[in-house]
Amino acid sequence: MARDMSDKEILKMELEQLKKEVSTARTPVSANCADTITFVEGLLPNDPLIKGVPDDKNPYKGDKGGCIIT
């Protein structure tokens, strides 16, 4: 697509993109990290990777037996 455009058209597209980027609201990384930490810690009590899966809800546990690697 860019091959079919003149230098002026390419520069105009770049200018439009830069105008969009300037008007984009930004937040500090530290604020985003704090929000992410709060979100993850809020979900921590229900996280099966941390807490484990109860035997009655585990579809892989039961009469099927296990797998032994030798």
From TrEMBL:
Coiled-coil residues: none
GO biological process: G protein-coupled receptor signaling pathway
Membrane topology: Lipid-anchor
Cell compartments where the protein resides: Cell membrane
Record GO terms (molecular function): G-protein beta-subunit binding
Domain G protein gamma as annotated: residue spans: 1-70
SMART domains: G_gamma, GGL
Keywords: Cell membrane, Lipoprotein, Membrane, Transducer
Example of a GO cellular component annotation carried by this entry: heterotrimeric G-protein complex
Pfam families reported for this sequence: G-gamma
Gene3D superfamilies: Transducin (heterotrimeric G protein), gamma chain
SUPFAM superfamilies: Transducin (heterotrimeric G protein), gamma chain
Family: Belongs to the G protein gamma family.
Function: Guanine nucleotide-binding proteins (G proteins) are involved as a modulator or transducer in various transmembrane signaling systems. The beta and gamma chains are required for the GTPase activity, for replacement of GDP by GTP, and for G protein-effector interaction.
Subunit structure: G proteins are composed of 3 units; alpha, beta and gamma.
Designated name of the protein: Guanine nucleotide-binding protein subunit gamma
